[in-house]
């Protein structure tokens, strides 16, 4: 369904999101493919059980053979028979900075991916379309790296204590003030791991007797945080505002399931950019709903902070909304800032509460000082406070790259999911054999891509996912596009039945970002 | 109509309740500069008795230069999880070195110490399985157990008789329903050195119970890795137990190794499973390479100087003896444990008042140059909340004079505040 929505003034710019339907023939062939693989899987398991084929799995100790088996046989069926065959597309070891071009250690397998050996050779200069390096801050030289090196020699690498005990350094305070200023909120708090930020703070905010409305395709960390909190969880269809409204109405009108008492709080969990779909949340509508039904909004900007918005301040700025409307703004520093960790921003009461009651503040070690310094320098660069315009240039370069890349892929005839402005580009593969083939063919042509299949995606919707970066130059994108075109023809991946008329190649669409004067 | 009215009338609670300004956990100590042996807390220069820097590697020049070299080669972040171009050769090297050091087949690294055990337990123990866990287990273990949705059975701290009683009860349950028993997995989760009490777990008896009742053992060695044992290999070396008898050893690298992150080690049969089902491993960015390089160098130092463990234990014994007999405070913890607790001998009635009293003791010591901290807990979230206490941490860098000074200062503080 392809739609362009202007929606009565809520949206200040066109919102183009498309998820083309799977062609029927392709769906059927995909199911057939999985069916054949499953049959072969059973056959080989049978042969392994009867010792006709050698079993190469690691096995239990002799002394513990009469213990209850640790894994159920069926649990590992997928692992043994499908994942093992194409396992070389994942966990590829690299040995250089994960920038626009990366060096990979070559590895071969002589026994169909059960074990790998490293030949010792290094494949150099692979175009990296897999790392989350949106603004190109993964650099081994430059102002960020120099600042981090200075802090490393002064402070050391570790901290050895928690925030509430002796681990709160002056660097952490500086970082939190800076992040709060960057986001436009009253105050912020930073944590050592993005995953843990979600899974340890959602339980601190909601508990039993509260309701969580979470999007269908939310990340594992949000799902884990929601589960650990003990609140009731209800799921609405991906980015579907009618589904969300219906759930909100039902919740307030009917109350808690058995006792009919009113809910204590309602929390809506959404992400800025969904990394598997490439879609952007419909934030103006979500905020309108939130205000109407008096619920709270938790926005996870893991992929969108730094990547969207004219000055890189994320999805809130992209839609021209005020950060005060979002109750809890969460994000990570791993993707656009080239560091590690997560943050939560919001009103001062919220952050004070989290400082006291967050699981991470009381029990987990605080962030490492050089990592903190990297974030401080990169945030200052994006805001333009280091005196250069590098930050702004990178944000614009990323937007330009996104538009160009997506348009060219659509012109070639691939099915691309997601919003036109999202730097995450999923290209549909569907069939299980093509997952492995695509990954390997692209590597042969010196391009590193990420392919994903079940269980991260629905079983027939496997895809290849490209992550664009401000560090990619137009030449690199053109090389990549040429190779993708070739491989697409080779593997017959051009499923789209809707051909876009190729535009004359305009390098930058001037209407993308108007300069807004506040 | 009436639905609209209901929607109009409903008032939610505020998102967060207000926090009183003088809440003890709200005002953090601000450390200016590196949190090493000599530390500047809130503007005062003190000797550090609060950071878990057991082997003094936080300020070690070799570790720092290894991290610098890594920073120059790889930058800071890894920009991806392990599955998607986030696996660096330093990660693979660190995993190999850890496996070799602990003499196991394989090791796996996490980028956050808390997430290590909290992701490892739910990878193996699912709904319907049974886990026997010590009452004094740390919060990370409790969160891992909560995420696993298994049946939790708590046994009294270090009480093997209580554990055996629970195991026997489970055995009689099994005999009633043998089909279910054949697919229910059982685990015991214990810590080597308990963070909350400073005690050591009786591992030889646990091994006997393991084979008698067919339960698997998960051992959490955050405090004992790099402290116990002749070469610092932890509690298995301390008791001389074959490491293959323990199914999974998990530890964090934030204490002795002075880095960030954690690891699990064991046989490949067990560890390999976490590479696809450990949530904190698959869905989270990998450890920054400079921290991995710092950990490798720290391991090198540990292997080259095996006598620091003996030195550390001697210092622990010394201060343990020196702190006995302070009126009003009792020492909780083994004599060779580098992380002790000082609890009030008699509580004043409410936990809040106890905490305030201990804060005065801590402030007295900080004003005179010894940095201490109270052990922080989330009071409402812990299953078995330990009593309020002051945490005393011993590191190799502290000299004998400093240890004596700390002990005498604590005596003075206790005298003036508690009497």
From TrEMBL, chain A:
Domain Aminotransferase class I/classII large: 124-484
Cofactor: pyridoxal 5'-phosphate
Keyword Transferase: yes
GO BP: any one term: sphingosine biosynthetic process
Main location: endoplasmic reticulum
Pathway membership: Lipid metabolism; sphingolipid metabolism; Sphingolipid metabolism
Chain segments annotated as transmembrane: 24-43
InterPro entries listed in its UniProt record: Aminotrans_II_pyridoxalP_BS (IPR001917), Aminotransferase_I/II_large (IPR004839), AON_synthase_class-II (IPR050087), PyrdxlP-dep_Trfase (IPR015424), PyrdxlP-dep_Trfase_major (IPR015421), PyrdxlP-dep_Trfase_small (IPR015422)
Protein name: serine C-palmitoyltransferase
Automatic annotation (TrEMBL), chain B:
Enzyme Commission number, as recorded: 2.3.1.50
Domain Aminotransferase class I/classII large: 45-408
Taxonomy, superkingdom: Eukaryota
Pathway named in the protein's UniProt entry: Sphingolipid metabolism; Lipid metabolism; sphingolipid metabolism
Record's catalysed reaction(s): octadecanoyl-CoA + L-serine + H(+) = 3-oxoeicosasphinganine + CO2 + CoA; dodecanoyl-CoA + L-serine + H(+) = 3-oxotetradecasphinganine + CO2 + CoA; L-serine + hexadecanoyl-CoA + H(+) = 3-oxosphinganine + CO2 + CoA; tetradecanoyl-CoA + L-serine + H(+) = 3-oxohexadecasphinganine + CO2 + CoA
Keywords, alphabetical: Acyltransferase, Lipid metabolism, Pyridoxal phosphate, Sphingolipid metabolism, Transferase
Enzyme class: transferase
Signal sequence range: none
GO MF, any single term: pyridoxal phosphate binding
GO cellular component annotations of the record: endoplasmic reticulum; membrane
Cofactors demanded by this protein: pyridoxal 5'-phosphate
One Gene Ontology biological process: ceramide biosynthetic process
Similarity comment: Belongs to the class-II pyridoxal-phosphate-dependent aminotransferase family.
Function: Component of the serine palmitoyltransferase multisubunit enzyme (SPT) that catalyzes the initial and rate-limiting step in sphingolipid biosynthesis by condensing L-serine and activated acyl-CoA (most commonly palmitoyl-CoA) to form long-chain bases. The SPT complex is also composed of SPTLC2 or SPTLC3 and SPTSSA or SPTSSB. Within this complex, the heterodimer with SPTLC2 or SPTLC3 forms the catalytic core. The composition of the serine palmitoyltransferase (SPT) complex determines the substrate preference.
Entry protein name: Serine palmitoyltransferase 1
Phylogenetic classification of the source organism: Eukaryota, Metazoa, Chordata, Craniata, Vertebrata
């Amino acid at each position: 369904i392809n739609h362009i929505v202007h929606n009565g003034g809520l949206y200040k710019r066109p919102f183009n999101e498309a998820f083309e339907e799977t062609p029927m023939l392709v769906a059927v062939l995909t199911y057939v493919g999985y069916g054949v693989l499953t049959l072969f899987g059973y056959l080989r398991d049978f042969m392994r059980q009867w010792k006709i084929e050698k079993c190469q799995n690691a096995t239990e100790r002799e002394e513990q053979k009469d213990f209850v088996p640790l894994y159920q046989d069926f649990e590992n069926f997928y692992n043994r028979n499908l994942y093992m065959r194409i396992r070389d597309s994942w966990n590829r070891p690299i040995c250089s900075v994960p920038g626009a071009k990366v060096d990979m250690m070559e590895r071969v397998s002589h026994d169909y991916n059960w074990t790998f050996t490293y030949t010792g050779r290094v494949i150099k200069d692979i175009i990296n379309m897999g790392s989350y390096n949106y603004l190109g801050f993964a650099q081994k030289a430059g102002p960020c790296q120099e600042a981090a090196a200075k802090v490393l020699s002064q402070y050391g690498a570790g901290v050895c204590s928690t925030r509430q005990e002796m681990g709160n350094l002056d660097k952490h305070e500086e970082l939190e003030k800076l992040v709060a200023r960057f986001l436009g909120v009253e105050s912020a708090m930073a944590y050592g791991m993005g995953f843990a930020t979600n899974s340890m703070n959602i339980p601190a905010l909601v508990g039993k007797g509260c309701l969580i409305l979470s999007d269908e395709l939310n990340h594992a960390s949000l799902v884990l945080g929601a589960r650990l909190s003990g609140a009731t969880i209800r799921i609405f269809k991906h980015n579907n505002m009618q589904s969300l409204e219906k759930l909100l109405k039902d919740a307030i009108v009917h109350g808690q399931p058995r006792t009919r008492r009113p809910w204590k709080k309602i929390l809506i969990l959404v992400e800025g950019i969904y990394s598997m779909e490439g879609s952007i949340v419909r934030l103006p509508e979500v905020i309108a709903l939130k205000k109407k039904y008096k619920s709270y909004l938790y926005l996870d900007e893991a992929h969108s902070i730094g990547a969207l918005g004219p000055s890189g301040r994320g999805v809130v700025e992209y839609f021209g909304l005020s950060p005060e409307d979002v109750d809890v703004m969460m994000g990570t520093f791993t993707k656009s800032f080239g560091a590690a960790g997560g943050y939560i921003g919001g009103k001062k009461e919220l952050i004070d509460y989290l400082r006291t009651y967050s699981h991470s503040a009381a029990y987990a070690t605080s962030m490492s000082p050089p990592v903190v310094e990297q974030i401080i320098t990169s945030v200052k660069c994006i805001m333009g406070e280091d005196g250069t315009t590098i930050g702004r240039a990178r944000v614009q370069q990323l937007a330009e790259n996104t538009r160009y890349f997506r348009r060219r892929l659509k012109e070639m005839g691939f099915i691309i999911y997601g919003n036109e402005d999202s730097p995450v580009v999923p290209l549909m593969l569907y069939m299980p054999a093509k997952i492995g083939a695509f990954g390997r063919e692209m590597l042969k042509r010196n391009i590193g891509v990420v392919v994903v299949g079940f269980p991260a995606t629905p079983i027939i919707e496997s895809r290849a996912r490209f992550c664009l970066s401000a560090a990619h130059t137009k030449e690199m994108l053109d090389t990549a596009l040429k190779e993708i075109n070739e491989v697409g023809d080779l593997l017959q991946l051009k499923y789209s039945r809707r051909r876009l008329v190729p535009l004359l190649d305009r390098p930058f669409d001037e209407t993308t970002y108007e300069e807004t004067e506040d | 109509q009436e639905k609209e009215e209901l929607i109009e009338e409903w008032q939610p609670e505020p998102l967060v309740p207000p926090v009183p300004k003088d809440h003890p956990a709200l005002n953090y100590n601000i450390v200016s500069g590196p949190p090493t042996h000599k530390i500047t807390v809130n503007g005062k220069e003190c000797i550090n008795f609060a950071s878990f820097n057991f082997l003094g590697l936080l300020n070690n020049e070799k570790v720092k230069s290894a991290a610098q070299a890594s920073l120059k080669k790889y930058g800071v972040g890894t920009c991806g999880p392990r599955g998607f171009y986030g696996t660096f050769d330093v990660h693979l090297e660190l995993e190999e070195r850890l496996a070799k050091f602990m003499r196991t087949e394989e090791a796996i690294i996490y980028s956050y110490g808390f997430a290590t055990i909290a992701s490892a337990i739910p990878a193996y123990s699912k709904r319907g399985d049974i886990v026997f866990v010590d009452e004094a287990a740390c919060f990370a273990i409790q969160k891992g157990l909560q995420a696993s949705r298994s049946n939790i059975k708590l046994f009294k701290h270090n009480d093997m008789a209580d554990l055996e009683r629970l195991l026997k009860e489970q055995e009689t349950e099994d005999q009633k329903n043998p089909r279910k028993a054949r697919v229910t997995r059982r685990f015991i989760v214990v810590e080597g050195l308990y963070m909350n009490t400073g005690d050591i777990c009786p591992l030889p008896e646990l091994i006997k119970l393991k084979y008698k009742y067919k339960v698997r053992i998960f051992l959490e060695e955050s405090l004992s890795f790099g402290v116990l044992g002749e070469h610092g290999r932890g509690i298995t070396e301390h008791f001389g137990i074959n490491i293959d008898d323990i199914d999974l050893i998990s530890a964090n690298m934030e204490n002795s190794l002075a880095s960030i992150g954690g690891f699990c080690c064991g046989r490949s049969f067990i560890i390999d499973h976490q590479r696809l089902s450990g949530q904190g491993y698959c869905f989270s960015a990998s450890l920054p390479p400079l921290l991995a390089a710092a950990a490798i160098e720290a391991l090198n130092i540990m292997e080259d100087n095996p006598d620091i463990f003996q030195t550390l234990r001697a210092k622990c014994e010394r201060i343990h003896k020196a702190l006995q007999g302070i009126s009003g405070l009792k020492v909780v913890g083994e004599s060779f444990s580098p992380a002790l607790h000082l609890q009030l001998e008699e509580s004043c009635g409410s936990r809040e008042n106890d905490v305030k009293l201990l804060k005065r003791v801590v402030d007295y010591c900080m004003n005179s140059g010894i940095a201490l901290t109270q052990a922080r807990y989330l009071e409402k979230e812990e299953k078995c909340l330990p009593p309020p206490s002051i945490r005393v941490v011993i590191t190799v860098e502290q000299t004998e004079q400093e240890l004596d000074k700390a002990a005498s200062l604590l005596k003075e503080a206790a005298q003036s505040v508690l009497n």
